[in-house]
Amino acid sequence: MRRLAAFSLIAVATALAASSQSILIRNATVLTVTKGSIQNGSVLIENGKIAAIGKNVSAPADATVVDATGRYLMPGIIDCHSHTAIEGGINEGSVSDSSMVNIKDVINPYDINIYRALAGGLTVSNVLHGSANAIGGQTVVIKLRWGKTAQEMLFDGAKPGIKFALGENPKRQGYPQESFFTQGQVVERRYPGTRMGVEEVIRESFTEAKNYQAEWKDYENRVERGEHPIPPRKDLRLDPLVEVLEGKRYVHAHCYRADEILMLLRVANEMGFKIRTLQHVLEGYKVAKEIAAHGAGASTFSDWWSYKIEAYDATPYNAAIMARKGVVVSLNSDSDELQRHLNLEAAKVMRYGGLSETEALAMVTINPAKQLGIDETVGSIEVGKSADLVLFDKHPLDNFSKVEKVWIDGHQYFDREKDLETRPAFEQKKKALEEKLKPAAQRPARGQGGSNPTAEAIQ
Amino acid sequence: MRYGSINAAVLTIAATCAVAMQAEVPSAIAIKDAHVVTVSGADLPRGTVLLRDGLIEEVGVNIAVPADAWVIDGSGLTVYPGFIDALSTWGIPSGAPQASANRPTGGAPTTPAPAAQTQPEPRAHGPEDRPQTYSFERAADLVNPSESRIEAARAAGFTTSATFPNRGIFEGLGAMIDLAGTRGRDMVVVQPVGQQIVFRLGPSGFGRTFPTSLMGNIAYVRQLFLDLNQYRQAKQIYDAHPGGNRRPEYDHDLEGLAESPRILLPADEAQQIDRMLSFGQELKVPFVVYGMHEAYRRIDELKQAGVPVLVSLKWPEKPKNADPAEQQDYRQLEMQTQAPAVPGMLAKAGVKFAFYSDGVDNAADLKKAVKKAIDAGISRADAIKALTLNAAEIYGAGDRLGSIEKGKIANLVMTKGEAFEDKTTVEYVFIDGKEFEPSKDLQKEPANRGEPKQPAISGDRGAN
Amino acid sequence: MKSAHLLAISLICLAPALLAGGDDNSVLIRNVVIHPVTSPDIPNGSVLVIDGKIAEVGMKVSARGGARVVDGHGLHLYPGLINAATNVGLAEIGALRDTVDLDEIGPFNPELRAEIAFNPSSEHIAVTRASGITSVITLPGSGARGGRGGPAPVITGQGALMHLDGWTWEQMAVKPGAVMDMLFPQIGGGSSRYAAVSGGQAPSFEEQEKQYREQLKRIGEFFEEARRYERAKNAGLADFQRDVRLEAMLPVIDGKQPLFMRAERERMIKDSVEFAEKEKVKIIIADPHEIGRTGPLLKEHNIPVVLGKTFELPMHDDDPYDAPYTLPNEFYKAGVEICFGTFDVEFARNVPFEAAQAVAFGLPHDIALKALTINSAEVLGAGDRIGSIEKGKSADLILTDGDPMQARTTIKQMFIAGREVSLESRHTREYEKWLARP
Asked: To the nearest whole angstrom, how far is the Cα of C104 from the nearest Cα of chain A?
């Protein structure tokens, strides 16, 4: 499917958006995640929302019927930690606090990894800045509406976030070594170089943010009193931190070790803000109690470990322990590859810690939805929620399963059959382009004016 | 008495200049019996153009040739307004070769940080350090008529360029310059015409100086405009209420930015076009977008935005040194085939656009690049218009440049054959009414061009 | 909490002593579904293990020789899985170079032997076992082609087939020198799959091709040197002097030890086969990322393939989204014998899932299971000793509650050479310990 089909899909999607086409997915095993499973169940989609669920669902006569006999329907998968679709660098690594940068500015809707992830059942991604700095950039939640523009991919109503990072990654530039990134140049050290310094950066930035907040309040008060003060400088770095303090922006904090997790929770308490999610949080199992008490979610890997020293105490049982201790846990990808099969990552928590199928599925659906504050509309199959649905040929926790169809807001964005069908045409179209680009000598003679690709380009 | 003597001195200087001018340029030139493409009006199949004192004095069919005029027989030749490079570094000696020629495939139209910086700058702590702001630099102060690429540009029929300094993210104030003169100041036609913004990325978003990522670049630009608004507001409030307020600090960077009548934003691929259209609107300043190789996907949006557009003449091609066994991606192939069709599509949609050289600095390549757009669907007339009047109008210089009209600056090009055809040669170029006979050698293919090996840009060509 | 911790530690220390030591390697596993892999499944059968070897397999087998009895009611018995490409035992923490013994300096290191640096105390051993893997190939090279400033690596040393249990590496080595790890050169040098889009001036393709041919020539010369060495040795020349490096090449040039040829791209595979023909050596194609038109060629020359991860991204934007998922089946359909490897350390345990993903996208299930067991054993020259449940073979067995390719399946018990092996690991210990945190 890829490019070619993507464009034809745009047409389809637009057509669907214009009409209020109903879709009935019939006779599937419906894994609602929050309300149990329904054998031979049906789901009716109307106006992009789930209108009815059950064994017997009546649909309008003109509804498109999808026969899903023997298939499994689950909510669209949600990834709480992604770097897909970011153009021009996922890190603004030059500064210790890069809160002035915003992932929303650089979403690339043409990143093929969006489509590849969609083909694995992913419908929502929390697209994060990298982990090069203690306070990283602003983050954004997208729906994988392949074929649409960056603006159209934004998850309407999802609260924006900001990335924090603790431990080895943000302190690494404090003792730069010869690496791929330095490309043979001597790199100046960047503060911080220790975990203590990481804490200090966060504390300092929030202290500044509070001063800044006060400065603006003072200005506003003076204006109100009829004075003519000069407005303070608007600071793109401090604005998002003020939003964090005011609860308007979520903090997603990359972390590994128990000590730094605890440190962050304490700094947040002291400064008066909440950590929305701890990301990776590989030693979260050691401080699960404290995480639960703070109310932070944990977004972790299924089984990553040992790639660096702060990942050496990791255990794939992490998710299970944290879940058992009352933490809302999700499984994330942090990877263009892994995001293609988060359902199979979820299957691993059944092996490592004996969680149930529903608990496992929740970790890639409703739990990340809760963490991102979007569980009102996505994350489970419930009436009234957005029709973000994935149809599998087998149970999604079965390692032999694969995705057949994916809907977002009731629009079908992936269809394996169509993907397979359009491959030859795509190849042909590509060959035709290659032919066109051959040097003139190898091409048929140019007529007057030459070939005119305009018409084709407009199509 | 003091005043009188000064007046006398001025008069003396003026007289000296006038004498010097007369010695170089005949007071009048008449181009007779040429095919005149006025651009602003109808073509004259057999017309006369009269130039005097650097201006077009008259253009028409039945024009009496003044007795003092030098006459050029234009029969068999075509006269066009001089071509304008709408975004250039021509004229700035350190500008060659234009760095954006190294644009990475598929990326934003970005340029690597200036090479060979001998003194590493201290690490910037954030946008407030403004490490890449040169908003105050003026192309008008940097241009030099002996710059090495100018002669090749004239040989391609270019008489004028919108030249911008090229370092930093805020590159400085551009100037519309004529590509001839005795001193730099002779070249300047209009200044400032705008501020070019270039996004400069470090490796993988890591680097010493903020910003290194695309999002960092965007935040950087956004912050500077916020600062500008605050600066203006602060000055206004202070002027009205000096008592009780601290005096706003004079800000060199922001003064440069404030002076700029428009900004130029880079956008090559479709998502970059989307991004820059909304960014430009957010900044609430007049803006122009440049690059445009994938604009075939965004014609409607560009039309709707009503924003002028600059199309790079450096058409995308298969990367040199690529393994022939490696396939290119569909999107790249599409861009390579479709980019030259963009001008035609823009013309058809009524989007105002002009061309820019983007590092294509030799006459043969410039000619071929325009020809490629013509082959891909734009009419010759529209291509000429994009290279002349449109470019002038985009920079607010349409009242003095860009067409063959009475009273405009006498910048003309005369060709044997229709412009941009393979066999066509540029016979004369007039700049400020002064005649140049472009070198025929410079119009030939560079001799050392072994087919695929030679890079598309040949920066040293003009030095010969 | 402290006592719990201590208890855990003492358990760890005791576990190998109890299970691996002594003579406790005779056992009767009965009442299980047996998946011998090389013969049809037995729905309800028994396997008798005597002295570490499989003594009998069948419907009715009675205990003897003092074997203890394991009742496997409702469970499945599979041969232990084999990961045919890892660096387990040679690397502990990826980012800490001091814990990594991979990629020795210099282009030709045939004399290096992976098994001698195999750390029997590596935490990765137990972690890998947890997925039912009883043997791995451990390779001395990571596959990195850079050379880190020196010449690009070509022969990184000999990979060893290792049991994932034992007191010492000697005990664990099933087959030292199972393969000779070699990186087939590539036009352009660096890893093609992750080819850096550098803004720098790349040499022209012609130049790159020239360098490639020069490198091939140097490799040819090295092989020729080994051959002359062998002739000199066989001739018993008076001034013959032993050479450690060249001596190590003799099994390769004699066709006894296969080259584990890392060849990611189509052209590399094709050129590898040509190279093998010319040099008359045995090769295994390792970590191919595409098949191109090489299928018939590999089949014709009877060259097996050790596949890398199935969970990969397609190489090009335009490739089908499932290209890496269907690749194993492409090789299988072409008639090529396949095995699975992961070419890493910490994810070596996920090799059954790599195979499973291939099954989801078309690879027949029984082939996937063979690829994880008997194929690897055969390709690595130990087909007579491991890889299936057959009489006379080493009793490398796993008792599971389901298909080992399913993540939902639990591995209940494991036997390596008849010894019951603990399925505990650093991971389970942390789990037990911290779950109990008040």
From this structure: 19
